[in-house]
Amino acid sequence: xxxxxxxxxxxxxxxxxxxxxxxxxxxxxxxxxxxxxxxxxxxxxxxxxxxxxxxxxxxxxxxxxxxxxxxxxxxxxxxxxxxxxxxxxxxxxxxxxxxxxxxxxxxxxxxxxxxxxxxxxxxxxxxxxxxxxxxxxxxxxxxxxxxxxxxxxxxxxxxxxxxxxxxxxxxxxxxxxxxxxxxxxxxxxxxxxxxxxxxxxxxxxxxxxxxxxxxxxxxxxxxxxxxxxxxxxxxxxxxxxxxxxxxxxxxxxxxxxxxxxxxxxxxxxxxxxxxxxxxxxxxxxxxxxxxxxxxxxxxxxxxxxxxxxxxxxxxxxxxxxxxxxxxxxxxxxxxxxxxxxxxxxxxxxxxxxxxxxxxxxxxxxxxxxxxxxxxxxxxxxxxxxxxxxxxxxxxxxxxxxxxxxxxxxxxxxxxxxxxxxxxxxx
Length: 426
Hints:
By secondary structure, the protein is an all-alpha fold. The protein has 16 helices and no strands.
């Protein structure tokens, strides 16, 4: 961990950095979130989109400032440790690690719903079969040591941006003002409820801190962050307003809103194309998250936040099979419980959002402690207040990060009490 402003050794400029940051913020969740938000708030869901975009400005700039001053690949967990100590770092790490089994299942179900709709088999069984196949493929490819290349990841990000842009441009002429009435059928509570699930689309700004050491200088990181804010704002607001204006009440009913928009703007032939794109996007995201989380698990075990046995294989160029296996078991357990208890996609996304929103709040709070007084600290303080307000929108789902935090603290304390093994003299 870098404790002071370091010399940049990376090669990323503003253009490449923007592409990576856009990819970190955007994700396959955008294929279904317009529907979930409309179901929660009706046309007033556009207010939730707008509010979270305004929240993103100080949050994104805060993480860019952290990355510029403390270039380190450890991201938010490192900053939490720098500001609040080892236990805080463990808690933030657990929020990431614990969110992955739930979030990857949610992502797989997004792909499953689009495939089921594309082939005309919109049943729950078909959706879950596709989702299960995507999860098995992701874990198998990671166990085999396969990785999604940077170019392929960039290609999938461009595919998502293209799908969103084409959907908005082609469907927007069919929008009608009458579809925005009644505007707020569920009142302010509905808007807050929509914000709780939409947080899934707004986490990812902390990726600026993870990528900080890759930038040639802090100005490149800041420019990339500002450009990403502009791109994401245009796409998100375009999708939000077009979904309501074109689909109206149907936006709350269709689980595949982007396919419905493209069918309106382009024609029925677009539906199978979107299904194929959805599979690629969801697999790429799941594969990347599984790979990153497996290494995070090994690091947590190394630092005493997980049993030490899971630390094996966590070095550069190695596959942490034990952590990967733990992740697979956890994902399998979540999948079985979701099937048995008929947990829907909305619930899975909200639980994931609660964990990742807690990570965001921890990161901005750490920035208040470590950034210098003045404009940067004021921005971090504003971001922290707004992040806590957004976190409150998660409601009862806050129990998920609370439970993970308690587990992290118990294991960390147990590891601290464990005697350090004696090394025999040479």
